[in-house]
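In response to reviewer comment 3 from the previous cycle, which asked for concrete evidence that the modeling workflow produces usable outputs, we include below a single protein chain processed end to end. The sequence was submitted unchanged, and the resulting structure tokens are shown without manual editing.
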Amino acid sequence: MWFRMSVISLNRLRYASGRGLCILVLAVLSVCTEAPALMVPLATTTLVDRASCIVEGRVSEVNAHWTEDRSGIVTEVTLDVTEALLGATNRVTFLYQGGTVDGIMQRVSDMPVVTNGQQVLVFLRQPKASAERRRRLGLARETRPVLVGSAQGLWRIGGGRAVKDGFTVTGDESVIERDVDTGTLKNRVRQRLSKMNRSGGTP
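The workflow returned the following structure tokens.
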């Protein structure tokens, strides 16, 4: 059986002065049985169909913080949009699980790691989790968009190529475009949007 796994690392020693007690915390491994680590592969057309916003932009802010109940870490990423394929906007902020706060790092298996200054193409949607599930995840008041298909919904752009990684799928992986010419990828997105009579990006 496969599970999504998150690892929280505490990179420091904690000493209890006056008691002669030294506690070394190396890692805490937590297993969440609600989501599989192996994802279903999503073709680009499927990502387009499920997205409410598709934009390319440069990462201008990356801010990680604890969830409302301090049970995990989430990261907010703000993009300065350079091109909108679906959804007219100059700036967008999205959320993904995991990140680093005060030296404590949490990594979630099917989520990307985004850094400031990166150029990315993202496929976003509004969170679909029920109010109860958001409460259990410590995100009861969170309404920011999330990536379609987790890490499958984010390509890093550079040198004319669009590349995505950091996830494992089960099934026919050939439908996934992990490394593709950026222009080809965008044209494929536009063609799918046109076929489905969807619009709203940069003219």
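The helical segments are 44-50, 131-136, 182-195. We consider this sufficient to address the reviewer's concern, and the full set will be provided in the supplementary archive.
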